[in-house]
Amino acid sequence: MIWSDYGYLLEKNKFGENSIITQFFTENHGKISGIIYGATSKKIRNYLQIGNKFYITYNSKNENKLGYLKIEIEKILTPAFFEDRKKLLCILSSMNLIKLLTVENQSNIKIYNLIDNFYCLLESSNWINKLIFWELELLKLIGYDLELKNIVSEEVVDGKKLYFVSNNNDKKYVPNFIVENNNEIDDFKQISNGLKLITDYLDKSILRPNNISHPRSRIDFLNTLKE
Q1: Which residues contact 190 (CB under 8 A, 6 or more apart)?
Q2: Is the pLDDT of residue 65 over 80?
Q3: Residue 42 has what pLDDT?
Q4: Does residue 183 surpass a pLDDT of 80?
Q5: Domains (ranges, CATH) in the chain?
Q6: Cβ–Cβ contacts within 10 Å for residue 77, how many?
Q7: What distance in Å separates the CA atoms of residue 4 and residue 123, rounded to the nearest whole number?
């Protein structure tokens, strides 16, 4: 089986002396794994950065065995953020989330396009705010839509409208900007609460039920936002 496609590098792990096992999210084939022989050579390793976009040729003699890949760099994306630790960790965290939450060999053009859009949001001044909506969209595309507008209740406290969800007499407040779909807010406290909401949801509804630890890359990224 031989095919060609475009894809973003999600993960790489050393395999033997000169090769690596990789995972890509591709335009037409979804998440795929394969071996790149000779990947430790200086010519290849310099652009094998997580998040970069490649033109991939996949070859496998048996669909039940790991195939091997030939790659050509299509877009050098991640190195543009080497000097920005927050954004660099954000790239690693986001690519790792896609790796964890998607299924092998299941195409999803909407997730592929979401990765395209990811690099546009990094160029925005309010990129952390937009990242929250990006993560919510990713969860929706894999079947975990929070549907907050349908489950929140409203109350007014000191003249301010607040949204909350109740569970067993426990009231949990939801940042207004998420419910109201306002991605222009610059209130860092609300933005932090939004990221915490997604983090808690990931842990409770997806990761822990599947015995998956919270990704180290995401923890590192969230920690940089506190600096």
Answers
A1: 175, 176, 177
A2: no
A3: 78
A4: no
A5: 2-77 (2.40.50.140), 80-224 (no CATH)
A6: 20
A7: 30
Report the alpha-carbon distance of residue 3 to residue 16 in Å, rounded: 25
CA dist., res. 52 & res. 112, Å (int): 13
Q: Is the pLDDT higher at 30 or at 189?
A: 30
Structure tokens at 216: 């180290």
Checking phi first, is residue 51 left (phi over 0); if not, alpha (psi -120 to 50) or beta? left
- Mean predicted confidence (pLDDT) in 159-181: 84
Using the predicted structure, report yes or no on whether residue 50 has a pLDDT greater than 80.
Answer: yes
Q: Which residues pair with 97 in a beta bridge?
A: none
Contact of 35 with 67, CB cutoff 8 Å: yes
Structure tokens belonging to residue 18: 């000169």
- Residue type, position 125, single letter: S
Look at residue 20 in the predicted model and tell me its pLDDT. Answer: 94
d(CA 118, CA 77): 11
Average confidence (pLDDT) over 11-36: 94
The torsion defined by the Cα of 165, 161, 139 and 145, in degrees rounded to 10, comes to 60
